[in-house]
Model the fold of this input.
Amino acid sequence: MRLTLPSTGLVAWGNAWLTGHVGLDEAADVVERQGGPHVVAGVPGESGELPLRQGLGALRVAGLTGLRLALPAPGDPLGLTGPPDFNTAAIDAGEAVLATTRERSLGLIPAEDRRGSSYVGTRWEVHETRSGALDTPALPEADRQLTLAVRDATEALLSVDGGQEWRPEIAEALGALRDSHRHEHVGGLAPGYPARAHRVAALASRLAVVVDLARSTESVGLSAAHVERRSEALRTLDRAVRRARVAAYNSVLDPVR
Done:
């Protein structure tokens, strides 16, 4: 799982703009500080590529009311509604943004945009998607599941890898989990989100570091059974992290309970 995703910035700051917590210029500035220039292609009623501000403005004119995060993986189309071609493209990208407008449902998929030797940005391709209820967790449930996954995965990883010498950055990331409540600002959310969403997003971001680093560490000297247990623990943790991120970033659009 990549730690910095274009979709998370667009969803968080796009929703902050749509809910009136920030202006369009501020939202676009933050998104582009995180990932370089952004362009949007395929906006209904528009031709060619539009700079991010114009693209969001055109979607707002079309009735844009909210942006939702999808973080699918093979075998787990988290947050997607179809059609199959769109789902496949989103799974290949590992992320997508679902946009609800007055008359249709749209999906935006990001790709790295390189032009020349120094320009690196993000290009969003807009697709028609199916409307329908999203099979995504609510924030309280995702929070509980993440807590359980942290406990189970940490026990499994330490029991399997306990005899190995951790890379320093993995040890640091694991240690940071114990103090995650002190670092709630790192989740990447924008104004307007509930406090619980900030906390869950921050913890999920730290856990994503652990998953990536642990996956990149060779399982030297482990038995086949230990390798499988380690892989299963990381899959379980990755699934919980993706669900927590989706729940946190989409929570600003959830009905007030």
In short: The first strand starts at residue 38 and ends at 41. The helical segments are 6-18, 24-35, 52-61, 84-93, 139-161, 168-178, 195-215, 224-250. Strands lie at 38-41, 49-51, 66-70, 96-100, 105-115, 119-129. The chain has eight helices and six strands.
